[in-house]
Every structure is written in structure tokens, then in C-alpha cells.
Specification:
Blueprint: E1 3-8, H1 13-24, E2 31-37, E3 42-48, H2 51-60, E4 67-73, E5 88-89, E6 95-103, H3 106-115, H4 127-136, H5 141-149, E7 154-162, E8 168-173, E9 178-181, E10 186-189, E11 201-204, E12 209-214, E13 217-222, E14 233-234, H6 250-256, H7 258-266, E15 270-271, E16 276-277, E17 290-295, H8 297-314, E18 318-322, H9 323-326, E19 337-343, H10 349-360, E20 364-369, H11 375-379, E21 382-385, H12 398-418, H13 423-434, H14 436-443, H15 446-458, E22 464-469, H16 474-488, E23 491-496, E24 513-517, H17 524-535, E25 540-546, E26 558-562, H18 570-588
Parallel strand pairs: 17-18, 17-19, 19-20, 20-21, 22-23, 22-24, 24-25, 25-26
Antiparallel strand pairs: 1-4, 1-10, 2-3, 2-4, 5-6, 6-7, 7-8, 8-12, 9-10, 9-11, 11-14, 12-13, 15-16
Subunit structure: Homodimer.
Organism: Deinococcus radiotolerans
Active site: 2 (nucleophile), 601 (for fru-6p isomerization activity)
Length: 606
């Protein structure tokens, strides 16, 4: 989940590398480094901490040269210090590598290399690759990289350069890599935003691909050396879309982008005249007896909303699995199973491996994915793109609400196709879905945002939080707790409200804020009963109510009103309030919301 950038062309490589890494720092900010080939030698500079530390180092010691590679690290093996930072070079400095991923068999490889006289400087698994390439090198860098990779087991996006060659050799298995094709110059990165300032023509490398970049262009082949054809894809969104756009943080910008993101998710797919949904997927909705939804983190909670919607509207049994556990529990899968994987990046390693497990047993597969050209999209039977646009903030916002909206459309499509949802019911829900961008824009009105800010600041010093919800909004409570944990570091738990008396009620006292989602629903009365149980034990109730519900406002110590919405679409609207509560709590505490500690945007290692 580290960030990779490479460049060869007429420009000063240092400028391109630092610019690209600044767009990828969300992928890891334990350390950063660059290597630049000046025609005679490869100079390496690296520094622990955020990219700014490397920038300070380079201010007084700029690097000259038009070929280079750069890296921003999220530590897996070895402490986040200067020595373990990438790039890694061989002892003579002639071969330099950067690596994203994990080499699972690095210890026996390292022991073998050391027994043959190789000396290691770092504690990383990545340095093994540099020494393996050095040992295999006899004048052809491409062949040496291929020979080295034949010995390793694990996940990697690797980029290599050699002092004797004006070329960059790269390869990937699991860890993403994308090339940018310019006029007389070539770029390489682990994600598109790093390259958009220079080109929108991208080539997405597949699992098992190797590429050689030089001044003449590029060649793609598999790890056996067989040439491969990879299409150049034009990226429609530009570099400005990946910048903060005047907001203080990426996260806040992306919260405010949600009306547009939802419009992009829904547009062209809802047909009022027929009450139908067109998802442009070719799966047979009548062939499934059960559905497995597989995801991690925020995407998992979107899947829980999806479970509720699909079972209610399409009457198909759905189970939702944490991807990191799915393939280890010997799941019951058959050709009558639809496995739905959910991922913003399409690169989440646990979800990717779970997808492969489901396919192994004959399941049909569908992805709810944001990133086009990602690893999952190439292995799925079909993909439902959410079209949320680039999401840079580590804590997901617009991708989450777009995923939930995609599940609503999927449930509508399945329900209509299977005959479990009447045309009238379908039209009603379709109208509710179409209203979502407007409702979310309302949820982001200055008055509502200010009210949430006031409540967040009031409870910012709390050590713990409890989130409660019922029915389709119980996952909204889980997502609210996750957001608060991720960016404010306040301990937070979430429960279905009816479960509170089965244990969590023991936590409640006058110091505990309890955020309760009590918007209009068929379970509202029961939710208010749960609120009474909290108040009876002196808990501080933050009550989220639908506009106009003055009757229940008396049950909250603090009340936050959200736009009134159809129960089935309310998780999207209510999520906005959860995001803002977490955001303003974190900023009140002075936290860096875009780069929360220990987290990275795209988890591409187990």
C-alpha cells in the first residue's frame, strides 16, 4: 500500500517524482525517498516521516537527472526510519529498487544471500529484491529482474533501475501499477492521481505483467517474456479533481463532493417511465439462490446496508463476510452463489483473494468498484462501477455513500427482475433514489453543518463514544463509529440499538456520549425506547432525527436534524451527519484527518 512513481524523459526527474509522491502520500507516510540517475551515477535520498521531511532535505541538495524513481512508504517489515525507507540500493549503488507489497519468503531468501556474501543495510523484505537482481545480473536488467522474481513468493509492485542502462524495469503481482504515456516521456505510478499533471493517457498493468520503459516508449510482457498488448485508456477527470479545491482537507472536499458523486452513480441508470434500473450488467438475476457480499472496513458496512436492501426488495438470502476471514473459513459456495465484492480501489488484497476463492468454487462474481482498470475489475464476471471519482482522504466518504446507492440500485434491479418488487414499489423507490443528490446537498447546508460542528466540539474531549441504530441504519451506526475512530482516535463502539441491553448498557454513565440514529422508520418507536434506557443511566444522548420530529426531540441532550428521506435511502443521508461529526471532532482535537496514524488508503498487503 506504498506509493510508487517513476519517470524517464526530458524533464528534471526530481520535480516529477516529488509532485507524484505528493499525490500518493495517502498510500503511506512513514517515510519517502527518491533515486535520480544523472547519467553517471544513481543518487539516492530518503527520509523518515512525511514527504515534507524529504522536501526539506532536497531544498539544499537538489538532484539533477532526467530518469528517476520515488517511493512513499507504509511500513510492513522494519521500523519507519531513514534506513528502512525506500529506495534500496545494492552495496555498490549500481542497482536501485522500490517495492510495494510483501515478499512472504524473504527470510530464507535473505539467509541464502547472506551466506553467499551479500550484506544488508535495512530490516525490510524489499531489500532482498535488490540483491537477488544483483546476483542474476549479467548485462541485461530485464532478464535479471525476471530471474529474481521467479524466486519470490508474495505481492509486489517493483520498479528497478541500473546505472548502466537508461531504462526502468517494473513488474507487478497484486500490487497496482499504472503507466502514463506522454510525448517523448514515460511515467509510472501506483495510482492515477500521481500522473494527471503530465498526461491522461494511462496503461493499467495486469497481474504478472512486466514493463520496460525507455526514451523510445515501453514494452509490456509477462514474467516469461511473452509480449502482451495493453490498451491505452484516457482518463476523463483531470489533476484539479484530485486537489483540495479550496477546502482545508481532502476529506472535507470529498464530503462536499457527495451530491455530485451520487449524481454520477445514479445518472443514466434510473428510468422513471418504466420504473426500471439499467445497470449494464449481464448476470442472470434468476440464477442465484444466495448472495455473498465480501468487503473490508467501510466497504463492509456498505455491504451490510446492501444485505438489508437486497433481502427486503429481492427476497434472496444474503450474508456479508469480512474479506480477511472469508477464504479461511471454507465458505459454502456453488454455481448458484453470486459473490459481490466491494472495494473503492479495486486493489484491496483481502477482498481480491476472497474473490479468487469464490471463483474457485464456481460462484458468479460482481464487483461494486470505484477504480476503473483495477485488479478486481479484470477478474470479475461483471462490474457495477460507482463513478465516485478520485477519493484521496484515507477515511472514505463519497465512496461509501456511492456504494450504498449502488446497492440500492442493485436491489431494485434484482427485485424487479425476480418479480418480488411491483412496478409501483419500484417507481416509489426509484423516485427516492433520484432525490438523493438533492437530499445530501440539503444535509450539507451551512446551518446543519454548523450545528454538527457545535455538538462535535462539545463532546470532543470524550474518551469513548457509543453509536446505536436499528434496521437499515444499524450499519450507519457502525460506519459512524469507524469514522470517529479512524480520524479522531477516540474509542467508539456501535451496536444495533436492540442489543444494547445485552451487554453494552454496562458502559453507560454520565461521561459517555451516545449517538443514536432515530430518523423516520418503522422501528423508530423501538429506537426511542432504547434511548430511554440510555437516559435512565445518565448517558448523554446525541439524537439524529428527521426534520420536523419535534415530539422525539425531548429525548435527546443534543438534537441534530437531517433531511427527511425514505427509509430505504436514509442510510446515505444519515451517513453525511456521521462523517461531519467525526470530522469536526477530529479537527477540534487538532488531528490530521487526511493522514490518520497507522492507516493507508489502499490496503494491498495482508
Amino acid at each position: 500500500m506504498c506509493g510508487i512513481v517513476g519517470y524517464i524523459g526530458p524533464r528534471q526527474a526530481q520535480d516529477v517524482l516529488i509532485s507524484g509522491l505528493s499525490k500518493l502520500e495517502y498510500r503511506g507516510y512513514d517515510s519517502a525517498g527518491i533515486a535520480v540517475h544523472d547519467g553517471a551515477q544513481i543518487e539516492v535520498k530518503k527520509k523518515a516521516g512525511k514527504l515534507a521531511n524529504l522536501g526539506t532535505l532536497l531544498e539544499g541538495q537538489p538532484m539533477s537527472g532526467s530518469l528517476g524513481i520515488g517511493h512513499t512508504r507504509w511500513a510492513t517489515h522494519g521500523l519507519p526510519n531513514d534506513t528502512n525507507a525506500h529506495p534500496h540500493a545494492t552495496e555498490d549503488g549500481r542497482i536501485v529498487i522500490i517495492h510495494n507489497g510483501i515478499i512472504e519468503n524473504y527470510l530464507p531468501l535473505k539467509e541464502g544471500l547472506m551466506s553467499r556474501g551479500h550484506e544488508f543495510k535495512s530490516e525490510t523484505d524489499s531489500e532482498v529484491l535488490a540483491h537477488l537482481i544483483e546476483e542474476a545480473y549479467s548485462g541485461n536488467l530485464e532478464e535479471a529482474v525476471r530471474a529474481a522474481l521467479s524466486q519470490v513468493r508474495g505481492a509486489y509492485g517493483i520498479v528497478v533501475t541500473h546505472v548502466d542502462h537508461r531504462e526502468i524495469v517494473a513488474a507487478r503481482t497484486v500490487s497496482p501499477l499504472v503507466m502514463g504515456v506522454g510525448e517523448g516521456e514515460m511515467f509510472l505510478a501506483s495510482d492515477v492521481p500521481a500522473l494527471l499533471a503530465y498526461t491522461r493517457n494511462m496503461v493499467f498493468l495486469h497481474d504478472g505483467d512486466m514493463v520496460v520503459l525507455n526514451d523510445d516508449g515501453y514494452r509490456v510482457m509477462d514474467l516469461a517474456g511473452t509480449p502482451q498488448k495493453r490498451a491505452i485508456e484516457y482518463i476523463e477527470w483531470d489533476a484539479e479533481a484530485a486537489e483540495k479545491g479550496g477546502y482545508d482537507t481532502y476529506m472535507l472536499k470529498e464530503i462536499y463532493e457527495q451530491p455530485q458523486a451520487l449524481t454520477n452513480t445514479l445518472i443514466g441508470r434510473l428510468h422513471d417511465e418504466t420504473g426500471e434500473v439499467n445497470l449494464d450488467i449481464n448476470l442472470d438475476p434468476g440464477s442465484f439462490k444466495r448472495i455473498s457480499v465480501i468487503a473490508c472496513g467501510t466497504a463492509y458496512y456498505a455491504g451490510l446496508v446492501g444485505e438489508y436492501l437486497i433481502e427486503q426488495l429481492a427476497r434472496i438470502p444474503v450474508e456479508v463476510d469480512v474479506a480477511s476471514e472469508y477464504r479461511y473459513r471454507d465458505p459454502l459456495v456453488s454455481e448458484h452463489t453470486l459473490a459481490i465484492v466491494v472495494s473503492q480501489s479495486g486493489e484491496t488484497i483481502d477482498t481480491l483473494e476472497a474473490l479468487r476463492e469464490a471463483k474457485k468454487f464456481g460462484a458468479k462474481t460482481l464487483g461494486v468498484i470505484n477504480a476503473k482498470g483495477s485488479s478486481m475489475t479484470r477478474e470479475l464476471d461483471d462490474t457495477l462501477y460507482i463513478h465516485a471519482g478520485p477519493e484521496i482522504g484515507v477515511a472514505s466518504t463519497k465512496a461509501y455513500t456511492s456504494m450504498v446507492s449502488a446497492f440500492l440500485m442493485l436491489a431494485l434491479w434484482l427485485g424487479r427482475a425476480r418479480g418480488t418488487l411491483s412496478a409501483e414499489q419500484g417507481a416509489d423507490l426509484l423516485h427516492a433514489a433520484r432525490e438523493l443528490p438533492r437530499l445530501v446537498e440539503d444535509a450539507l447546508s451551512p446551518e446543519r453543518v454548523q450545528r454538527i460542528k457545535e455538538v462535535a466540539e462539545k463532546y470532543a474531549m470524550a474518551r469513548d463514544y457509543l453509536f446505536l441504530g436499528r434496521g437499515v441504519n444499524s450499519p450507519t451506526a457502525y460506519e459512524g463509529a469507524l469514522k470517529l475512530k479512524e480520524i479522531s482516535y477516540i474509542h467508539a463502539e456501535a451496536y444495533a440499538a436492540g442489543e444494547m441491553k445485552h451487554g453494552p448498557i454496562a458502559l453507560i454513565d454520565e461521561h459517555l456520549p451516545v449517538a443514536v440514529i432515530a430518523t423516520e422508520s418503522r422501528l423508530l418507536e423501538k429506537t426511542i425506547s432504547n434511548v430511554q434506557e440510555v437516559r435512565a443511566r445518565a448517558g448523554k444522548v446525541i439524537l439524529f432525527l428527521s426534520d420536523g420530529d419535534t415530539e422525539n426531540a425531548r429525548h435527546g441532550d443534543d438534537v441534530i436534524y437531517v433531511p427527511r428521506a425514505h427509509e430505504m435511502v436514509s442510510p446515505v443521508v444519515n451517513a453525511i451527519a456521521m462523517q461531519l461529526l467525526a470530522y469536526f471532532t477530529a479537527t477540534a482535537l487538532g488531528k490530521d484527518v487526511d493522514k490518520p496514524r497507522n492507516l493507508a488508503k489502499s490496503v494491498t498487503v495482508e
